[in-house]
Amino acid sequence: MKAFGTLEVTDISNPNSIVPIEIPDQQPTGHDLLVKVKAVSVNPVDTKVRNSRNGLTNGARIVGYDASGIVVATGEKVTLFKPGDEVYYAGDITRKGTNAELHLIDERIVAIKPKSLDFLTAAGLPLTSITAYEALFDRLPFSAEHLESNAGKRLLIINGAGGVGSIAIQLAKWAGLHVTATASRPETVQWVKELGADEVINHRNSFKDEFEKLPFDTVDAILCLNNTKGHWQNMHDVIKPQGHICSIVEIGETVNLDLIKPKSITFSWEFMFTRPMFETEDIIEQHNLLTKVAELLDSGVIKDTVTKKLTPLNAENLREAHELIESGRMIGKVVVGEN
Questions:
Q1: Is the peptide bond before 83 cis (omega within 30 degrees of 0)?
Q2: Number of folded domains in the chain?
Q3: For residues 100 and 62, is the Cβ–Cβ distance under 8 A?
Q4: Is 245 helix (H, G, I), strand (E, B) or coil?
Q5: Residues 211-249: tens digit of each pLDDT
């Protein structure tokens, strides 16, 4: 079957950066589904893995950590799906990616796609939705079951206009939180306001100075979606004592962890691949939360965040999508495939 992979680490402008390749046909066993891929999305993790030299000695690297498609076969332990089901999911970073005609994936991290969305639009949601949902309701001290308990709580989202930020703002507002988002360009400021942010501050300025323009000077929690090290002091300055910080961005260097000790701040990481990587006891929670997100979309409580569609699913369009992500100026999500 056909897939799209990387044979060498090279600049995305090089046609060899992503090429069509042939891989053996596969059959599902155990909890696996075999999905006919209709559309995928490209995320920063795709570009990071594509640019890594690890594993290239073992052949082509196939990335892709978002997909929507149709189940064509199931393993003997599958109970949640049947052939013909239309699904969406974010995949498992330890397995081959979704940039292929057919893809094997554990049913426990898959859900029925939103009925109100076509395949292209649905493909832009899983990774960002899982990341935002887990960050808000598993890592930070907010509840998705008892929304009343969130009343009066303030959340700061750094990089509100990106893929994760765009869905995180909406989920946070659904949960009853007061949301301040960061953005620096007129178009990104407008975007996060349309998504429901109560205030917008400029992340290129001192957060302490920006908060002087607001009727409050601290927040209960911060979701950091950009430059953890660069915003370390900023986050300390505006987090409430005994508050919580969650980041999805690697630090890569030493930071002064002692800085947040006097305020007794809780710091946590969110990595949406943890559950499938380690097959945790609660791996089914990714199925559950994607099901909940689909319900919220179909009921109109939240909306999709796709801003760029490229068709069909081929190497050229995947390269263009990677280039958009690497530009650092992408608003919302880019998807590749067919409706």
A1: no
A2: 2
A3: yes
A4: strand
A5: 999 999 999 999 999 999 999 999 999 999 999 999 999
User: CA end-to-end span of the chain, whole Å?
Assistant: 21
User: Which 3 state secondary structure label does DSSP give 244?
Assistant: strand
Tokens of 219: 């927040």
Does this model's pTM top 0.90? My answer is yes
Contact 289, 110 (CB under 8 A): no
What is residue 57's predicted lDDT score, i.e. its pLDDT? 46
Q: What angle do CA 71, 72, 78 make, to 5 degrees?
A: 65
Phi, psi of 204 (to 5 degrees): -85, -10
Mark whether 202 and 265 lie in a shared domain: yes
Which CATH number goes with the domain that contains 100? 3.90.180.10
What DSSP assignment string belongs to 104-156? EEEGGGEEEPPTTS-HHHHTTSHHHHHHHHHIIIIISS--SS-GGGGTT-EEE
Q: Closest Cα to residue 132, out of 90, 69, 189? A: 90
Distance CA 95, CA 86 (A): 21
275 torsion bin: left (phi>0), alpha (psi -120 to 50), beta (else): alpha
Structural domain range at position 107: 2-125+274-337
Same domain, 147 and 253: yes
57 and 80, same structural domain?
yes
Same domain, 302 and 331: yes
